[in-house]
Amino acid sequence: MFLRRKNKKARGVGHSYWHLCETVRTARGPRQRVVASLGKLDEAEVAGLRGGWDDLTALLRGEAPARSPAARTAELPGLESAPSSGSASTPPAVASTPAVQWERAEVSGLRVERTRDFGESYLGLALWHRLKLDELLAGLLPAGRESVAWSHVAALLTVARFCAQRSELGVAEHWYDTTALDDLLGVDTGLVNDARLYRALDQLGAHKDALCAHLMTRYREWFGVRFEFLLYDVTSTYFEGQAEGNPQAQRGYSRDQRSGNKQVCLGLVCTPEGLPLSFETFAGNRADVTTVEEIVASMETKYGVAERIWVMDRGMVSEANIAFLRERRARYLVGTPKSWLRHHEAKLLEKSDWQEAQAGLEVRFVAHEGGPPGEKYVLCRSAARAEKERAMLQRQSEGVTAALGKIAAWLRRTPQTDQEAVGRRIGRALGQFPAAAAIIQATVQRDATGCAVDLQIASAVDAGQKAHRQKGAYLLRTNCEETDPAQLWRWYIQLTQAEAAFRTAKSDLGLRPVFHHKQDRVQAHLLVCFLALAMWRSLEQWMRAKGLGTCARQLVQQLAGVKSVDVLLPVLRSGARTELRLRVVATPEPATAQLLAHLGLRLPKGPRLIANAVPKITPESAQTLAPQH
């Protein structure tokens, strides 16, 4: 489910609302429908969105802010606005309270400077505190001789990655100065440089296991997550440069279509909700199937041996891996190769004994010869997926037929004596459409002299019928004791959460490319990406708990519109003209305020006095600001 903003105009007045929507499959294709409307905020809810700057830590942690005497004094009647008339030296009766200071200002000289991004980094830092990573790293990275605590720099690196900053150099030279993180973290802009960020990566990388264990604990406390199921999948990310100092940087199968770049493979373990638990880095030319034993042993070493259910797709499965899991008494639910379906083609055509797992998808248990004792096999067929795969195969068939038709016309027009040239051209045509190559046959016709003069194109009937029957079908194998095949399918389909986590890391968090070349630095970089992914997926669970769906992208984009500005206000003190610099967080627009209210996330309230400018004493400025009688 996701959020959609609805703008409405009534009697010349514009209103913004949020609808919670979901995508559903219908007979006419995917459609979106409104599940609920979040409604409109009242004034009390809007007022509750903000808290004082002194309570910043409490705001980030979601705690009730402490009410200071100064804050209570500022709410007394008569202190909300300045006097409308009279001498500047005659404030209201309650103005003698030390918490209130009156100044006579030159409104015509008011200006605004240094507009900076606030909302997105504030949200990231709030998630950092809600996950209690600040407390953990304060203990893991105790203060030493450094001028900035390493725990603060680690927060800066992770929030920057949460905001999709792709390099530490870009963070230090440009991005940090454009955000309000110097206020939120208390780290001056001049203290942030690339060398400090790189050294912080080195400090952080040594505590990977402690961070992963802490996240598991925090998931359980915050969301009540259980760890009975573990999803495992592998992706890759590529390097810019040769990365000669990293033995894991190798060329291999690239999911990013960057086969010319060196890469590393990243194995991710996550919960069915998509919350990341742990990761391991492998060489870029490592086959997925060879990583299973290592990742299972690593998880059991760190978190103990338990009868968890490992869910993996068929790319991770081999008989050796299955035997390894069975030896460790681990439960598994895995996909099987497409070739296994040929043993169950007759079952696919039967109309009885099928159980509907969801709309358009049916499942049933089947017997499979040669399997280990205690294994169950679930045959699944999806009408919608079958229709889609058949349409894809049809397009490929039409494409390869058209390409071969051009070759046939070429041969009829210009007979060829070079048989190798003809074969290469046919091979290229078939290679462009691999799915159709198995069912399309191309036979070269030759004349009496052996020249290629034509091309006969035919469809293999048996292969085509076999491909038609197997479309939209899956075969799962498991040693779980579950007796409902529909439940087993629902467990398996949760693998989409692992795939979604990879998409988030690459698209929203800037996982790729990697600019570091040292192996330890690359590991630390991936750890920061892992922490940012944990924050992003935690945000989605937070949204789900508050009835805001599970698509965090819209929320992050909306909060990115909240800015921090410096208001420079000319005032007169003892005949001298000075400037007050007040830092203010802009009031969010109503649509953004709705989201903040539903999350219970509050922003700092009121101005924050930063500094006074150097006094400028001139007769003109003194005359301008002098009391008028």
In oligomeric terms, what are we looking at?
Answer: single chain
State the share of residues found in helices, binned by percent: 25-40%
Task: Enumerate the strands of the largest sheet in spatial order, edge to edge or round the barrel.
Answer: 8-7-6-9-10-16-13-12-11
Strand content: 15-25%
The CATH architecture term of the largest domain is Alpha-Beta Complex
**Overall mean pLDDT score?**
84
The unreliable regions are: 69-98, 614-629
Overall, the morphology is elongated
* Whole-angstrom Rg: 32 Å
Structural class: alpha+beta
The overall number of domains is 5
CATH C-level of the largest domain: Alpha Beta
Count of beta strands: 20
Distance between the termini: 64 Å
- The number of helices is 23
Q: Strand count, sense and closure of the main sheet?
A: 9 strands, mixed
- CATH third-tier fold name of the largest domain: Transposase Inhibitor Protein From Tn5, Chain A, domain 1
Structural write-up:
The two termini are 64 Å apart. This protein is α+β, with helices and mostly antiparallel strands and 629 residues long. Mean pLDDT is 84; it is low at 69-98 and 614-629. The protein has 23 helices and 20 strands. β1 (2-10) and β2 (13-26) form a beta hairpin. The protein folds into five domains: 2-40; 44-80 and 89-116 and 562-625, no CATH class; 119-206, no CATH class; 208-375 and 479-545, Transposase Inhibitor Protein From Tn5, Chain A, domain 1, CATH 3.90.350; 386-470.
Short description:
This protein has 23 helices and 20 strands.
